């Protein structure tokens, strides 16, 4: 019954913005770190951003630092605001929740719940 559902993906021009949402159901995740990962065709799933259980700290991959912002709301929703987007940001974006990621983790095996992903495409 535990679910994470991403939304907000779509097509955007380079330099534009997009905001992804992750809605949790079945339980609250206030003691879970919430992360965003992405995967492009032919590539491994890579870390993008994480926010701690308290929402007090966050960490970003170097490739998105300064452009993306992660936030969370009432232990139910997690957001990824993506600005100044680049074609290299094109990927399926996944929301993930991990008890072992409560303080923030970049390791995908620290996350036990995953959404099905949402496609983000950035055109040149």
How would you sum up this structure, described in words?
This protein has 124 residues and is mainly β. It is 0% helix and 49% strand. It has strands at residues 3-7, 10-13, 18-25, 33-39, 46-51, 58-60, 68-73, 77-82, 91-98, 113-114, 118-123. Strands 2, 4, 5, 6, 9, 10 and 11 form a 7-stranded mixed beta sheet that branches. The chain has a 4-stranded antiparallel beta sheet with strand order 1-3-8-7, with no helix packed on it. A hairpin with a 6-residue loop joins strand 4 (33-39) and strand 5. The model has no long low-confidence stretch (mean pLDDT 96).
Which key terms come to mind for this protein?
124 residues, mainly beta, seven-stranded mixed beta sheet, four-stranded antiparallel beta sheet
Helix-strand blueprint:
Elements: E1 3-7, E2 10-13, E3 18-25, E4 33-39, E5 46-51, E6 58-60, E7 68-73, E8 77-82, E9 91-98, E10 113-114, E11 118-123
Parallel strand pairs: 2-11
Antiparallel strand pairs: 1-3, 3-8, 4-5, 4-9, 5-6, 7-8, 9-10, 9-11
SSE order, as H and E? EEEEEEEEEEE
Helix- and strand-based class?
A: mainly beta
The percent of residues in helical segments reads under 10%
Could you name the ranges where pLDDT drops below 50 across 5 or more consecutive residues?
Answer: none
Per DSSP E runs of 2 or more residues, the count of β-strands stands at 11
Shape: globular
Radius of gyration: 13 Å
Strand content: over 45%
* Major sheet attributes: 7 strands, mixed
